[in-house]
Amino acid sequence: MLRPEVAGFYDQRTGSIQYVVACPNSRRCAIIDPVLDFDEKSGSTATTNADVILDHLQRHDLKLDWVLDTHPHADHFSAAAYLRAKTGAPMAIGEHIRDVQRIWRDIYNWPGLACDGSQWDRLFRDGEPFKIGELDARVLHSPGHTLASISYIVGDAAFIHDTLFMPDSGTARADFPGGSAESLWQSIQAILSLPDETRLFTGHDYMPGGRQPLWESTVADQKRNNPHVAGQSRHDFIHLRETRDRTLPMPRLILHALQVNIQGGELPPAEENGRRYLKIPIDAFPSSAWSS
């Protein structure tokens, strides 16, 4: 099996990891889960993260085949639309993005939102194969964190987004609209059914205990060392996950980010004064825990 080259890029502000996965033979690559910088206090955007990745592609003589998102993110803006505009590479996400669009269309009272996934160039089905250069890749629908979440299996590497974190950090929350702890358990079991040596690349790391950021583990590592799954039954996991999720405040950018990310990272159009505006619904989650 051809082994993909993987480079991770950590965004300190959001704890997100962005990836470049490259074919060693053809020097073709994909970017996974790129971040568009946003400062909610000033309302400013920047392309610092995405430009670092573009510089990496240039320095390593990589040609971009895909800009891929694993799901519509709640904690950062996607830079997919920016990267497509810069490179011409197609954007893709899982086909269940349409379900998420319908949920958030109602939350934002946004009747004009196209909920057919047409903002992307490709909507992947569960199990669908595709290529990154000479690398064989396929899609694994892995809902729970969101309805639309997918993992990308590329050779011996799996990009598993917000399902499993590093073994010392457990698993992702499942209480967003359309989320489900039971679905997350099933998705995790599908990931852990991959060969033990499969490299797992997670979507976030929050540096527990002040350690340096980490993002690569293996199926065997997770089975052995992740306390949310090692020795846990389905019932125990669901109880643990739902109990913990009730204590968690919503991500600070969720209401900012979803209206951008359900459009593939496209910012709202400029109004007559030339400025763009985000819409923040009030009391959309009245039972959510508050930040301290």
Which features does this protein show?
single chain, 292 residues, alpha/beta, Metallo-beta-lactamase, Chain A, six-stranded mixed β-sheet, 15 strands, 24% helix
Question: Topology, please?
Answer:
Blueprint: E1 5-11, E2 16-22, E3 28-32, E4 35-39, E5 44-46, H1 48-59, E6 63-68, E7 77-78, H2 80-87, E8 91-94, H3 97-107, E9 122-124, E10 129-132, E11 135-141, E12 150-154, E13 157-161, H4 181-192, E14 199-202, E15 216-218, H5 219-225, H6 234-245, H7 254-261
Parallel strand pairs: 3-6, 6-8, 8-9, 13-14
Antiparallel strand pairs: 1-2, 2-3, 4-5, 4-7, 10-11, 11-12, 12-13, 14-15
Largest sheet: 6 strands, mixed
Strand content: 15-25%
- CATH fold naming: Metallo-beta-lactamase, Chain A
Give the count of structural domains. 1
Question: What is the helix fraction of residues, given as a range?
Answer: 10-25%
By CATH reckoning, the class would read Alpha Beta
The number of strands is 15
What is the mean predicted local confidence, pLDDT? 97
Radius of gyration: 18 Å
Structural class from helices and strands?
A: alpha/beta
* Known CATH architecture: 4-Layer Sandwich
| CATH homologous superfamily identity | Ribonuclease Z/Hydroxyacylglutathione hydrolase-like
Order of helices and strands: EEEEEHEEHEHEEEEEHEEHHH
The best one-word shape is: globular
Low-confidence stretches: none
**Total of DSSP H or I helical runs spanning 4+ residues:** 7
Widest sheet: strand ordering? 1-2-3-6-8-9
